[in-house]
Amino acid sequence: MAETVDVPGDSGTGSPRPLFAGLSDISISQDIPVEGEITIPMRSQIREFDSSTLNESVQNTIVRDLKAVGKKFMHVLYPRKSNTLLRDWDLWGPLILCVTLALMLQRGSVDSEKDGGPQFAEVFVIVWFGAITITLNSKLLGGNISFFQSLCVLGYCILPLTVAMLVCRLVLFAEPGPINFTVRLFVVIIMFVWSIVASTAFLADSQPPNRKALAVYPVFLFYFVISWMILTFTPQTQG
Amino acid sequence: MATVDDLQFEEFGDATTSLVATPDATTIRIEDPDETPKHPPAPPRSSRREEDDELLGNDDSDKTELLAGQKKSSPFWTFEYYQTFFDVDTYQVFDRIKGSLLPIPGKNFVRLYIRSNPDLYGPFWICATLVFAIAISGNLSNFLIHLGEKTYHYVPEFRKVSIAATIIYSYAWLVPLALWGFLMWRNSKVMNIVSYSFLEIVCVYGYSLFIYIPTAILWIIPQKAVRWILVTVALGISGSVLAMTFWPAVREDNRRIALATIVTIVLLHMLLSVGCLAYFFDAPEMDHLPAATVVTPNQTVAAAKSS
């Protein structure tokens, strides 16, 4: 209403005025702009992004997802302290790795020996339920990692062991014997250590400091069991 | 409007003096942080004349009551409820494992180590480790025993893992359940001073199984004498932990029932270890004495000779 801003307290005269007495006299002049547009600069970008992924070709989607998976593989193979696995978690990589491992580890056919190696379903169940149990354990101990992030890390860190499985498969084409076994043992041990180092590099920070060992031990057990399954794999074509 | 006098700080005086004035008032005592239970002051207390005196602990009885009340506050369908069972630190788990390996007569495992904070971490992961230790060691031992036999083809025997898991987990959960039910029933008939909650019993059983992990690994050695010595030692240690834990709980009862309970506990434990040894580990007497085998004479000898 009034044209000037009345500044309280500029009187400087002697009488003490009660605080905030001048507030009721303040009015906004028309020189100060208080209208305008309130826009969130990100919003238009997000809308563009959404519609673009809906409309893009299937090939683009698959290639983009594969690139994300491949990038995470690289992070596992060269474990540094980075947040990529945790921030953009996905479960494609663990699924691919688990299926590959289970396919290679399963025993041949139904009519083979009764007490042989694991079936496809057994490997699958061990990997996924093992990962879920470890995740629940770390959350119950008070870790601040989310459920799927932890599953993602544990699944991706099976990559070294899958590589070990491939190497063992190739080595088994050579003649069996103690040298054969020693080579396989050596490869599996190295990959086992690599898996543990990679997963603790990602997971250890999310635990409270006085419970780190409690949270890391189940990871050790998990990868040990998988390594054991890889090491004791015997193909069906023998004897 | 508040006057100036109303804003003066009012002295409440010392706690003791005000208690004299109003004896019913509640007081709060803040302890020195150095006294928090990092080093539980149990040893001097339990070596007193009667350990039943500190049934729930004289001065920490209200503390344990308070803690018990605080712990069970979340309803059982929330996640926080289950987090209270994993409220242990690394050093606590190690202490409990150490306590199960070194049973000291007169010291009660539950009273000394668990102290109203039973955890499920120890029992669960010790049982998981034991399952895999038994399965893997059994497999390895069979491989070493039959090494060199022409007719033996190594198989990983993966099915035994599931069998081992069933046996160990049902032992670790069903036997404490039965024991707890039995103790509750006796408690209703005879007033026992010491009683344990279900989780404390599960905890004791879980930690007492820890000794079997190195035992299972050492069972790989294919010597019968070694294996039976290991069985005896392991049974002695874990059996004594269990016996010393449960003796105060049945002591007040009829002598025969008390003895029968303790004997049954130890017997079941022995059954578990001997059963696992017999099922997962082949007998080592089959390791090859080439010409001396009497039972299956011709086939193996002929096969060995012809190859």
TrEMBL record, chain A:
<dbReference type="InterPro" id="IPR045231">
    <property type="entry name" value="Yip1/4-like"/>
</dbReference>
<keyword id="KW-0812">Transmembrane</keyword>
<protein>
    <recommendedName>
        <fullName>Protein YIPF</fullName>
    </recommendedName>
</protein>
<comment type="similarity">
    <text>Belongs to the YIP1 family.</text>
</comment>
<feature type="transmembrane region" description="Helical">
    <location>
        <begin position="153"/>
        <end position="173"/>
    </location>
</feature>
<dbReference type="Pfam" id="PF04893">
    <property type="entry name" value="Yip1"/>
</dbReference>
<feature type="domain" description="Yip1">
    <location>
        <begin position="76"/>
        <end position="229"/>
    </location>
</feature>
<keyword id="KW-0472">Membrane</keyword>
<dbReference type="InterPro" id="IPR006977">
    <property type="entry name" value="Yip1_dom"/>
</dbReference>
<feature type="transmembrane region" description="Helical">
    <location>
        <begin position="89"/>
        <end position="108"/>
    </location>
</feature>
<feature type="transmembrane region" description="Helical">
    <location>
        <begin position="216"/>
        <end position="234"/>
    </location>
</feature>
<feature type="transmembrane region" description="Helical">
    <location>
        <begin position="120"/>
        <end position="141"/>
    </location>
</feature>
<keyword id="KW-1133">Transmembrane helix</keyword>
<feature type="transmembrane region" description="Helical">
    <location>
        <begin position="185"/>
        <end position="204"/>
    </location>
</feature>
UniProtKB/TrEMBL annotation, chain B:
<keyword id="KW-0812">Transmembrane</keyword>
<feature type="compositionally biased region" description="Basic and acidic residues">
    <location>
        <begin position="29"/>
        <end position="38"/>
    </location>
</feature>
<keyword id="KW-0472">Membrane</keyword>
<feature type="transmembrane region" description="Helical">
    <location>
        <begin position="228"/>
        <end position="250"/>
    </location>
</feature>
<feature type="transmembrane region" description="Helical">
    <location>
        <begin position="257"/>
        <end position="281"/>
    </location>
</feature>
<feature type="transmembrane region" description="Helical">
    <location>
        <begin position="120"/>
        <end position="141"/>
    </location>
</feature>
<feature type="domain" description="Yip1">
    <location>
        <begin position="101"/>
        <end position="273"/>
    </location>
</feature>
<comment type="similarity">
    <text>Belongs to the YIP1 family.</text>
</comment>
<dbReference type="GO" id="GO:0031267">
    <property type="term" value="F:small GTPase binding"/>
</dbReference>
<feature type="transmembrane region" description="Helical">
    <location>
        <begin position="161"/>
        <end position="185"/>
    </location>
</feature>
<dbReference type="GO" id="GO:0000139">
    <property type="term" value="C:Golgi membrane"/>
</dbReference>
<dbReference type="Pfam" id="PF04893">
    <property type="entry name" value="Yip1"/>
</dbReference>
<protein>
    <recommendedName>
        <fullName>Protein YIPF</fullName>
    </recommendedName>
</protein>
<dbReference type="InterPro" id="IPR006977">
    <property type="entry name" value="Yip1_dom"/>
</dbReference>
<keyword id="KW-1133">Transmembrane helix</keyword>
<dbReference type="GO" id="GO:0016192">
    <property type="term" value="P:vesicle-mediated transport"/>
</dbReference>
<feature type="transmembrane region" description="Helical">
    <location>
        <begin position="197"/>
        <end position="222"/>
    </location>
</feature>
<feature type="region of interest" description="Disordered">
    <location>
        <begin position="20"/>
        <end position="64"/>
    </location>
</feature>
<dbReference type="InterPro" id="IPR039765">
    <property type="entry name" value="Yip5/YIPF1/YIPF2"/>
</dbReference>
